[in-house]
Amino acid sequence: MSDYVELSDLTKIYPTSKGPAVIVKDFNLRIRKGEFVTLIGHSGCGKSTVLSMLAGLSAVSEGGIVLAGKELNGPGPDRGIVFQSPCLLPWLTAFDNVMLGVDQVFFTASRKERREIAEYYLTVVGLGDAMHKRSRELSQGMRQRVGIARAFALKPKMLLLDEPFGMLDALTRIELQQVLIEVWGRTQLTALMVTHDVDEAIFLSDRVVMMTNGPSAEVGEILDVKFPRPRNRAALLADAEYYQCREQLIEFLNERSHLRPSQLQSGIAA
User: Fold this and answer.
1) b (16+ CB within 10 A) / e for 206-238
2) 211 and 41 Cβ atoms separated by less than 8 Å
């Protein structure tokens, strides 16, 4: 299968009073169509910076990004984004918040067709009975469901998720991981997600990309997650291979994330 997303020598440099700060340097990654990939690494390593450049929200200093054969330059409706906080308009209902994007993207469709899109995705994320409540009346977890529904409703070419469950309690986080993977399973959207959570990365992903520490962060190692889909959390937790995956991620973060890829390949410590 050919690459659907290509991040080539992606570099982000910020000017500072002490000279240029290189956050990400020569970041290279290929993602296949329909693949779910997560980025994991220590805080400040540049995970969200990579996602922001892919979203078109932060300019690329060097390198390039290609999505479905088209070089990206700025934001667009071909990428659906789920942020840590869903940024809803509090005076609008969940339905109306989703409709804002649907009306813009599907402006040639009939009003009935647009309403059906919003209703469908709000229902599949579990808000069928709450879609007409104002967002300020919803819990944090319910608001994040709206954010997930909104991203999928735009029917983008790619889904980008920036620690979407980072502000949620543990039980709600697990619940929404299941919601996300079920909705994703219906659409098979190509997805890239940033997370700090090792277990979340394994449960959701086809591959986990481990980033080296910043500055000048890049791809360190990549873990293939080979568990079949659809996934069952209880079955994963009972599988010895799950703990091998977990150990590999934790070992990288604790022992090898400070190394450059050339050092990782040669086994030479910094």
Assistant:
1) bbbbbbbbbebbbbbbebebebeeeeeeeebee
2) yes
Distance CA 161, CA 191 (A): 8
Distance CA 73, CA 193 (A): 20
CB 232 within 8 A of CB 242: no
Rounded to 10 degrees, what is the CA torsion of 162, 175, 145, 46?
0
Q: Could you tell me which residues are beta bridge partners of residue 50?
A: none
Mean pLDDT by 10 residues, the chain (270 residues): 88 93 95 97 93 96 96 93 91 97 95 97 96 95 96 96 93 95 94 96 97 94 95 94 97 93 54
| pTM for the whole structure | 0.93
